[in-house]
Amino acid sequence: MNPANLFADATRTATAGTDLSTEQTSDLIDQMLRGQVSDDDIGSLLLALRQKGESVSELVGAATAMRRHMTKIQHRHDILLDTCGTGGSGSGTFNISTAVAMVAAACGVPVAKHGNRKATSLTGSADVLEELGVRIESDAQSVAQRLDKTGICFCFAAKLHPAMRHVVAVRRQLGVKTLFNLLGPLCNPAGATHQLLGTSSADAQIKVAAAIAQLGTTKSFVIHASDGQDEVSLEGTTRVIEVTDAGQVEHEFSADDFGLLPVGQEALAAADPVASAAIIRRLLDGEPGPCRDTVLAGTAMALWLVGTVSDLRSGVQMAADAIDQGKAKQTLEGLRAD
């Protein structure tokens, strides 16, 4: 059967409310990434899956296909953290997880931050890092060297997932969250062992956690906040699904668990990469306030995830010290180095 007919059949199946199998989805995504499918067929299938609600089998199948096509980063680290989330929460905040990645690295945790330019958000991790002076278009060897030299690297999805060029135009044209929003965190080119993975909804959180359980990491925290953020939030509560080989455990945290004051989402707003970069520069310079506190909380969660600290309040203190002693700013400088 030719690709057009296969996609038409899959679209009809999804439109009828039936989930695709792991193997079927893997084959379909593989054909997309080989450039064998028209934009119209890709768009129709992605919208049908979105309308139905992407299933765990579809996530696992799609991630498996994407991993086959990605350019892998070789490294020597037994522990490697990624803070890449699904995006698409519509919160309009500065790039919190990118700042968390830098502060966590300053605390001695090797980090391979996976990310891309904005798709459905105001500012993507690639956009803000470029604004901060980071060379995001590095090839795989340069990325690996940066990780070994400085303890942090940026894995630019557009560079290390070259086959994604076949779906970029469709995603932009659709302008809505699709299956691919959920896939980025599941396809880290460096094979991160630990993930602090934000999701844009409670439903996505459950599905992504189940997919990670099948795809495998040492330990991951899949998070979603009650205020809708795909980050550790200091407003309301943050629900965490801990995923290991032993199964899943759920946690719930509030600002008090971090020893911090509540922070409203409006205090974290950034209209574009320029504004986001300015916030990150200020907090790395030691400026107090809600943006710093939110990054301290996210970093504390990351440090607890990898076992660097035994509790969240200790993580907040370690993160604060890394900023106040200039280590986090030095980490950014290392990331920027030629």
TrEMBL record:
Q: Which GO terms describe its molecular function?
A: anthranilate phosphoribosyltransferase activity; magnesium ion binding
Residues binding anthranilate 2 are: R171
What is its cofactor?
Mg(2+)
Q: EC? A: 2.4.2.18
- Catalytic reaction(s) noted: N-(5-phospho-beta-D-ribosyl)anthranilate + diphosphate = 5-phospho-alpha-D-ribose 1-diphosphate + anthranilate
InterPro entries given in the database record: Anthranilate_Pribosyl_Tfrase, Glycosyl_Trfase_fam3, Glycosyl_Trfase_fam3_N_dom, Glycosyl_Trfase_fam3_N_dom_sf, Nuc_phospho_transferase
Write out the GO biological process terms: L-tryptophan biosynthetic process
Q: Where does 5-phospho-alpha-D-ribose 1-diphosphate bind?
A: 85, 88-89, 93, 95-98, 113-121, 125
A GO cellular component term found in this entry reads: cytosol
Any idea which positions bind Mg(2+) 2?
D230, E231
Pathway noted in the entry = Amino-acid biosynthesis; L-tryptophan biosynthesis; L-tryptophan from chorismate: step 2/5
In what residue span(s) does the Glycosyl transferase family domain sit?
A: 79-328
Q: Which UniProt keywords apply?
A: Amino-acid biosynthesis, Aromatic amino acid biosynthesis, Glycosyltransferase, Magnesium, Metal-binding, Transferase, Tryptophan biosynthesis
Q: Where does Mg(2+) 1 bind?
A: S97, E231
| Residues where anthranilate 1 binds | G85, N116
Its subunit composition reads: Homodimer.
The free-text function statement in the UniProt record for this protein reads:
Catalyzes the transfer of the phosphoribosyl group of 5-phosphorylribose-1-pyrophosphate (PRPP) to anthranilate to yield N-(5'-phosphoribosyl)-anthranilate (PRA).
Q: Which family does it belong to?
A: Belongs to the anthranilate phosphoribosyltransferase family. In the C-terminal section; belongs to the anthranilate phosphoribosyltransferase family.
Q: What is this protein called?
A: Anthranilate phosphoribosyltransferase
Q: Which organism is it from?
A: Rubripirellula obstinata
Q: Corresponding gene?
A: trpD
